[in-house]
Design a protein that fits this description.
CATH architecture of one domain: 3-Layer(aba) Sandwich
Largest sheet: 4 strands, antiparallel
Distance between the termini: 33 Å
Number of helices: 7
Mean pLDDT: 92
Low-confidence stretches: none
Strand content: 5-15%
Radius of gyration: 16 Å
CATH class of one domain: Alpha Beta
Strand order of the largest sheet: 1-2-4-3
Length: about 180
């Protein structure tokens, strides 16, 4: 796939099949995090363990319901809603909260999302697990994040189901200016 085709095809996918992800494919795609522009160090932690994914999903759902954010509360109340959408892999992008750490994590996640699209995978950029992974709780300890790191953003990865549930087409916007 050409780069522009991958950029055009990439969209947030919210329904994943049970088709297993090959180890080499996942490693290849995630390695592109290190090709992203960055403004400092970051770490990518890839979670594939089904029990740990289920624990993150459940904790995220509870955190969304208790967030005080009307959108997150309404999303969590949807019938059948699961924050990780059944994805077989979750990449956590973390960094020490200094300097421009959010930029490094976000550009790495975006680059991995494009690489995933190029390789026939679907992805979804999400931040809701950051509500459940605070760096101090038991779930955070299970993830063994590097000392002092906080999770900035996450990327779901897997093969998409035909129906992209919980996702409406994104409207075209006119937000580009030239001077």
């Amino acid at each position: 796939m050409e780069t522009l085709d991958a950029l055009h095809a990439r969209k947030s996918w919210r329904a994943y099949s049970e088709k297993p992800l090959g180890d080499e494919l996942l490693k290849t795609v995630v390695a592109f995090a290190n090709k992203a522009p960055n403004a400092g160090e970051f770490t990518v932690t890839v979670v594939r363990n089904a029990e740990l994914l289920a624990e993150i999903n459940a904790a995220t759902l509870v955190a969304m319901k208790n967030s005080g954010n009307d959108f997150l509360i309404s999303r969590a109340a949807l019938a059948g809603y699961q924050p990780l959408y059944g994805a077989p892999a979750l990449a956590l992008f973390s960094a020490e909260p200094t300097g421009y750490y959010q930029i490094s994590a976000a550009t790495a996640a975006s680059t991995v999302a494009i690489a995933a699209t190029d390789q026939g995978l679907r992805s979804c950029f999400i931040i809701t697990p950051t509500l459940a992974i605070d760096g101090k709780n038991a779930l955070s300890r299970k993830l063994a994040l590097p000392e002092g790191h906080v999770v900035v953003c996450c990327l779901l990865l897997g093969y998409g189901e035909a129906e992209n549930r919980f996702s409406a087409p994104r409207p075209e916007v006119d937000n580009i200016r030239f001077l």
